[in-house]
Design brief:
The chain has 88 residues and is of the alpha+beta class. 33% of the residues lie in helices and 30% in strands. The radius of gyration is 15 Å and the shape is globular. The relative contact order is 0.17.
Length: 88
């Protein structure tokens, strides 16, 4: 069994909660924020199982910004995370 620690973002859109793991490009939804998080957890698990079956799990996680530390896949540490605007 392997552990993957991923980021979950939850947004409210038109009365529905949408959850997203941006690094893996996996999303789900629910009636509450907790439902959306739970659905995302299931969707990420299914995605990772599919990668395992294809034999691409390590490659996908590495290319998505995860690093293995003591047997646990974790996202790279961010030095800076901020919202930046541009005008065009």
């Amino acid at each position: 069994m392997m552990q993957v620690v991923f980021r979950a973002e939850v947004f409210e859109e038109d009365g529905q909660f949408v959850s997203l793991c941006p690094e893996l490009n996996v999303s789900s939804f629910g009636d509450t924020s907790q439902d959306a998080k739970d659905s995302l957890h299931e969707a990420v698990e299914a995605f990772l199982e599919g990668c395992t079956l294809l034999g691409t799990l390590d490659e996908v996680l590495d290319e998505s910004g995860f690093r293995r530390q003591n047997g646990v896949w974790r996202l790279r540490e961010r030095v800076i995370e901020e919202q930046v605007a541009t005008v065009s």
